[in-house]
Write a structure and sequence with these properties.
Layout: H1 9-22, H2 27-36, H3 48-61, H4 65-76, H5 83-99, E1 106-116, E2 119-129, E3 139-143, H6 154-164, E4 167-170, H7 186-202, E5 207-212, H8 214-225, E6 230-234, H9 252-260, H10 268-276, H11 281-284, E7 292-297, H12 306-309, E8 317-322, H13 333-349
Helix pairs in contact: 3-4, 3-5, 4-5
Length: about 350
């Protein structure tokens, strides 16, 4: 189920422009697409998916499959609300696989069958293994959030694998990307538990979990429950973001609604009811957590400061709310990522 909703594409350019440049595209190309896009949904000249796909096709024709994958990633952004977006995701995957020989690490794509409710569901995952990595190395589960998925975060995930000496298993959280099920709390946690079980068998038994944005909700759950040996939470909502009075900006209400499986824009009350069960308060009230590193920007417009500061004072937990930066502290990644990789290496070594 999916739906379109009123969305000014310029709002997305305003919020995501730095992220677009970090995805490997040239400043000139991003600016040209921005100038050409005047509507969000039509698959026609001036439409978001059309103009980004046009750029991607140009890269593909030149043999720049890495850039083509990045451009198709922006074409399907921010969610798979229609057939044109779903087609862009398929093309992104095709270009991504063509680019795989140049990744610099061993790459493997697998389709796992994991427990879901009373049956199973297919979960495509990507494995990144640095050269000469021992078979006993730890495994790091990693995912993005509701609009930035495993292929979109490729460079970051490869960096984590290389810098920390882990085998990284990347996946899309429920309701996003190649997931076949809607975003959910208990059932989504069931899928992550299944991934953790798979990860324990891939290496020497140690498993860590990196979650970014809404992915941070699931890594916070893994860390708070003690299901993993270490958890990194970057910009993750855990409690107050799921209350009815929380207001979503930059199209996030529609993105969340699509991820939750609505087929039309939900009312604020309906969305809040769907999100109510996501609160991690029951786990926050316990003291079973694994070592955790929780980071976000103090100026985040999506996740309240409370959802980061609520971790303050917990045992084996480091918390950083960085001033002068927003969601996931993206403008300060040059200092945030080394801190995260350093913490992870030290924690897994101990």
């Amino acid at each position: 189920m999916s739906y379109e909703w009123p969305l000014d594409p310029e709002d997305l350019f305003v919020e995501r422009y730095p992220q677009m440049l970090r995805s490997g595209l040239t400043t000139t190309d991003v600016r040209e697409v921005r100038a050409a896009v005047v509507e969000m949904w039509p698959d026609a000249p001036g439409g978001w998916v059309y103009e980004w796909s046009k750029l991607a096709a140009h890269y593909a024709a030149d043999g720049r499959h890495d850039r083509a994958a990045a451009a198709y990633g922006w074409a399907k952004f921010p969610c798979l609300a229609d057939e044109a977006k779903r087609e862009a995701l398929d093309r992104q995957l095709a270009q991504y696989l063509l680019a795989a020989p140049g990744f610099g690490v061993e790459f493997e794509r697998r389709i796992l069958r994991l427990p879901y409710r009373d049956g199973t569901t297919a979960v495509p995952v990507h494995l990144f293994t640095p050269p000469e990595l021992p078979d006993t190395a730890p495994v790091l589960l990693a995912s993005g959030g509701v609009d930035t998925w495993k292929m979109d975060l490729h460079s970051l995930f490869v960096f984590f694998a290389m810098q920390t000496g882990v085998r990284l298993l990347a996946f899309d959280i429920p309701g996003t990307g190649e997931s076949a099920v809607a975003m959910c709390a208990d059932e989504g946690g069931q899928l992550v538990d299944g991934l953790i079980e798979v990860a324990r068998k891939l290496g020497g038994g140690k498993v860590a979990h990196l979650g970014i944005s809404m992915g941070g909700y699931y890594s916070a759950r893994s860390g708070l429950s003690g299901a993993v040996d270490a958890a990194l939470v970057l910009g993750g909502p855990v409690e107050r973001a799921f209350t009815e009075d929380h207001r979503w900006r930059y199209g996030m209400s529609g993105i969340i609604g699509n991820a939750l499986g609505f087929d039309a824009p939900p009312t604020d009350a309906a969305r809040a009811e769907a999100l109510h069960g996501f609160s991690l308060r029951p786990l926050l009230d316990k003291d079973d957590n694994a070592p955790m590193l929780v980071i976000n920007g103090a100026d985040d417009v999506h996740v309240p400061q409370h959802d980061t500061l609520v971790f303050s004072g917990r045992r084996s937990t480091e918390v950083a709310l960085l001033p002068g930066t927003g969601h996931c502290a993206t403008s300060e990644l040059a200092q945030v990522v080394p801190r995260m990789t350093g913490w992870l290496s030290a924690t897994l070594a101990s």
